[in-house]
Specification:
This protein is mostly helical. Helices cover 54% and strands 3% of the residues. It is globular. Bound molecules: acetyl coenzyme *A (ACO). The site of acetyl coenzyme *A has 19 residues, from α15.
């Protein structure tokens, strides 16, 4: 039997149910998102990132003491092998942080004696290391490239606080730490998005979790997925203080270009994460800059809805929130990864717990069967 399929290919696998999951649900018609059955509107501003990680992994919210112990376990793992830190000092400064991140995550396997152990217990221990070490890797890339030191994590705080502390080199204000925590809560899982699907495909071959997460990071980087938040900030900078937002958007649409941070494969109404991020962006925006980027973002939202009928996705206001937190634009997508490792790891564990190789089919549209011509008889310029 060939791949000359009997069925029509579904471009981009749109609407295809590729597996079952209990981790998260995206209700694109009603604009709702659920983590393990809990609606994001209830979780946002009420739970910490560590609670979300626990929830996605264990299908229940942790009790108070359990959460503290879990957070402690994570924060104690926020250290890096010294060899990896040395490597950050030597990598070319113009390499995109996402490229360095995916290589560094792959490298973590070299230092983990359990790397190839796919048992549930070992995979969970590796997931803890990944959630803990990804923020440190990102902070390490940023600091060490500039010849700066990498502060040690504060064991009395959580991932969001420690990420900002290590990345920026000083302790964030409680409000900034809370804002970063909200960003992490909102990005943690999103059904079978492209990067999660990559992770599951890789895990389904029984490759280890480091390999699966490396695939996921590579997939997240693209501008149609997590890379959009960086493009949003580049667009806002390009429009500039004095630019006319409406003209700029009209110009993009007239050229048939996409407005970054807008549209979604699943949501046909407002993305609930964007609603939470818009609210926070308005609260944290930089008053020394007259909240310019936030105001421009609101105008872009109005204009795009009016012209194209499409809404902002999670990446749109994430850009202005990250700007307010002092994150350089090249690192925006890495912040997405600090959070999404929660979902990726949960999905890898779910896949391994009841594995079946993910191997779809393609509809072959080439010529077949073709008559073979030996090399010596082939015309110059190739056969037609
Ligand atoms: N700007 C302008 N038009 C858009 C946009 C956009 N951002 N998104 C979709 N459209 C239009 C398309 O031109 C198309 O219009 P048409 O029917 O008149 O030709 C229609 O909406 C449907 O678009 P598709 O490309 O078929 O939608 P698809 O589901 O394949 O794309 C995607 C989803 C890739 C997210 C798209 O909306 C996009 O490119 N957005 C910009 C990049 C972005 O923000 N990505 C982040 C997504 S969220 C995340 O991954 C975390």
């Amino acid at each position: 039997m060939t791949d000359k399929g009997e069925k029509t290919a579904v471009r981009g696998l749109e609407g295809v149910i590729a597996s079952e999951t209990r981790i998260g649900m995206v209700d694109g018609v009603n604009g709702k998102l659920y983590y393990a059955g809990y609606e994001i509107d209830e979780l946002a501003e009420q739970v910490s990132f560590e609670e979300v990680v626990f929830l996605l992994w264990h299908d229940r919210l942790p009790a108070e003491k359990e959460l503290l112990a879990f957070r402690d376990q994570l924060v104690r793992e926020m250290t890096l092998p010294p060899a990896l830190q040395d490597w950050f000092r030597r990598i070319p400064a113009d390499l995109h942080p996402m490229v360095v991140l995916r290589s560094a995550v792959s490298d973590l396997a070299l230092f983990d004696p359990e790397a190839a152990d796919n048992s549930a217990a070992a995979t969970q221990r590796k997931a803890i290391r990944l959630v803990a070490k990804i923020p440190t890797i990102i902070a390490g890339i940023h600091r060490m490239r500039q010849g700066l030191d990498l502060p040690a994590p504060d064991l009395s705080q959580g991932i969001a606080f420690n990420f900002l502390r290590m990345f920026l080199g000083s302790d964030p204000s409680p409000y900034d730490a809370e804002t970063m925590d909200l960003v992490l809560v909102l990005h943690a899982d999103h059904g079978f998005n492209a990067s999660t699907f990559s992770a599951r495909v890789t895990a389904s071959t029984l490759a280890d979790i480091y390999g699966a997460v490396t695939s996921a990071i590579a997939t997240l980087q693209g501008p149609l997925h997590g890379g959009a938040n960086q493009r949003v900030m580049e667009m806002l900078t390009e429009i500039g203080d004095s630019g006319d937002v409406a003209d700029y958007i009209d110009g993009l649409l007239a050229q048939g270009k996409r407005i970054m941070g807008f549209g979604h494969r699943v949501y046909k109404v407002q993305d609930p994460r964007a609603r939470h991020l818009r609210k926070r962006a308005g609260q944290v925006c930089r008053e020394d800059e007259g909240c310019t980027y936030f105001k421009m973002s609101e105008t872009i939202e109005e204009k795009t809805l009016q012209e194209k009928g499409i809404y902002p996705n999670v990446d749109f206001y994430s850009a202005t929130v990250q700007h307010a937190l002092g994150i350089p634009v090249a690192y925006y997508t890495t912040v997405f990864a600090v959070s999404r490792i929660a979902g990726w790891s949960a999905h890898v564990m779910e896949q391994l717990a009841d594995n079946r190789l993910i191997r779809p089919r393609a509809q072959f549209t080439g010529k077949y069967p073709r008559k073979f011509t030996p090399r010596s008889q082939r015309p110059e310029g190739g056969e037609k």
